[in-house]
Write a structure and sequence with these properties.
It contains 15 helices and 24 strands. It starts with a strand and ends in a 5-residue tail after the last helix. The strands form 6 sheets. A 4-stranded mixed beta sheet has the order 22-23-1-24. A 4-stranded mixed beta sheet has the order 2-15-17-16. It has a 4-stranded mixed beta sheet with strand order 4-5-3-14, with helices on one face. β22, α12 and β23 form a beta-alpha-beta unit. The chain folds into 2 domains: about 210 residues, Enolpyruvate transferase domain (UDP-n-acetylglucosamine1-carboxyvinyl-transferase, Chain); about 200 residues, Enolpyruvate transferase domain (UDP-n-acetylglucosamine1-carboxyvinyl-transferase, Chain, Alpha-beta prism), CATH 3.65.10.10. By secondary structure, it is of the alpha/beta class.
Length: about 450
């Protein structure tokens, strides 16, 4: 039987919490490490199922890997690559693993990669990845659920993305590293994770200019110019935003450490407008508190530096108990309001009209049995359970495990009443106590 969270709501979150490495960055750094022959080491690696999946993808290429969970590091020895195929059984579980396509084509000039899977939050096609690779000179064939890319030679070119896709930007950056000449990606994604990837590649010996802006230029280098490195991943801004929401939503007071506040400027501004108090106490630490009921504001998800879609579900939970009416417009994914039906079970007043959600704040949410439908929706239901009266059971924790390391442990350290349990194990324990063990 699958694990569940049992949450007794009503406790104010207080104390300190440290944020781990960015999931959306470390996965791409791991894939990028195969570009250089030799042993690279990445630090500040969170213990997540997505990290394990990416290790499986890389190991399947014949690359040696080692995950030191105590040190929070991953070692990748890409001296030899013995396979150019990224298998369906791994890639289908996590969309981010599709970035291995650009890295493999760059180093091996050929790749066979399964079409990606991941959270069911809407259509996320790989057209931009494919068109960009073709522009660089790769021949692409898609059959039997796999993308087969081959290129005797990759040549730099100008690539314009119709939308600033993070995945396409990253894949094309990797594919361009060893291309002849210069590649210019226009309308590129500007997320902090893109900057982290560029810094990683440049430390390795690549020549990437403009990451964090809408135009990235990659000047191709030779294979012998790349060398293995040691590198530390940036903090996870989405995990930080989740804990900021939980503290503010429970009217608590906590210090959130090991973050880059500049990565959360837009989200912080929204929380302040809703009535939260947020104070910078150190370059990498903030204090979050909220004494009164929050006020409703409107949210529109946008590519970075706009409001992040990954925190949209958190915003909805906060609005569900705020004064007034707030409107959320989800402009990036057509199916990312999957938490709505579960919040309604908890007493929220939400009306959804396609990509708009109108949330009228109620005075209280009540505990209920709910289920995580995807990573971020699942985390938001945990926050809702902490804010609600009574007991909330959150099922389908495998979604949450993809992006939150020791989530319940961190919440308990802040005074939240949450336990992780398994029905089968719990039943055995109860039977053992009354002498009726099977």
């Amino acid at each position: 039987m699958a694990d569940k969270y049992k949450i007794q709501g009503g406790n104010q979150l207080k104390g300190e919490v440290s944020i781990g490495g960015a999931k959306n960055s470390v996965l791409k750094l791991m894939a990028s490490a195969i570009l250089a022959k030799g042993e690279s080491k990445i630090y500040n690696v969170p213990e997540l199922t997505d990290v394990s999946i990416m290790l499986d993808v890389i190991s399947g290429l014949g690359v040696k890997t080692f995950h030191d969970k105590q040190e929070k590091s991953v070692t990748i020895d890409a001296t030899d690559i013995t396979s150019i195929t990224a298998q369906y059984e791994f890639v289908s579980k996590m969309r981010a693993s599709f970035i291995i396509l650009g890295a493999l084509v760059s180093r091996c000039k050929e790749a066979i990669v399964a079409l990606p899977g991941g959270c069911a939050i809407g259509e996320r096609r790989v057209d931009f990845h494919i068109k960009g690779l073709e522009a660089l000179g790769a021949k692409i064939k898609i059959e039997n659920g796999y993308v087969h890319a081959r290129a005797n030679k990759l040549v730099g070119t100008d690539i314009y993305l119709d939308i600033p896709s993070v995945g396409a930007t990253e894949n094309l950056m990797l594919a361009s590293i060893l291309a002849e000449g210069s590649t210019r990606i226009q309308n590129a994604a500007q997320e902090p994770e893109i900057i982290d990837l560029a810094n990683f590649l440049n430390t390795m010996g690549a020549d990437v200019i403009g990451a964090g802006t809408s135009e990235i230029v990659i000047n191709g280098v030779k294979q012998e110019d790349l060398h293995p490195i040691e590198y530390t991943t940036i903090p996870d801004r989405i995990e930080a935003g989740t804990f900021m929401s939980a503290v503010a939503g429970t009217r608590g007071n906590a210090i959130i450490r090991d973050i880059y506040p500049a990565h959360l400027t837009f989200f912080t501004d929204k929380l302040i407008k809703m009535g939260a108090n947020i104070k910078l106490i150190e370059p990498t630490a903030i204090e979050v508190s909220c004494k009164n009921r929050m006020n409703s504001v409107n949210f529109v998800t946008q590519p970075y530096p706009g409001f992040p879609t990954d925190l949209q579900s958190m915003a909805m939970v906060l609005l569900s108990m705020a004064n007034g009416v707030g409107i959320i417009t989800e402009s990036l994914y057509e199916n990312r309001f999957m938490q709505v039906q579960h919040l309604l079970r908890m007493g929220a007043d939400i009306h959804q009209d396609r990509n708009h959600a109108i949330i009228k704040g109620v005075k209280k949410l009540t505990g209920a049995t709910v289920a995580a439908s995807d990573l971020r929706a699942g985390a938001s239901l945990v926050v809702a359970g902490l804010m609600a009266n009574g007991t909330t059971i959150v099922e389908n924790l495998h979604h949450i495990d993809r992006g939150y390391e020791k989530f319940d442990e961190k919440i308990r350290a802040l005074g939240g009443n949450i336990i992780r349990y398994n029905d089968e194990i719990l039943t055995e324990e109860l039977r053992a106590k009354d002498g009726s063990r099977i």
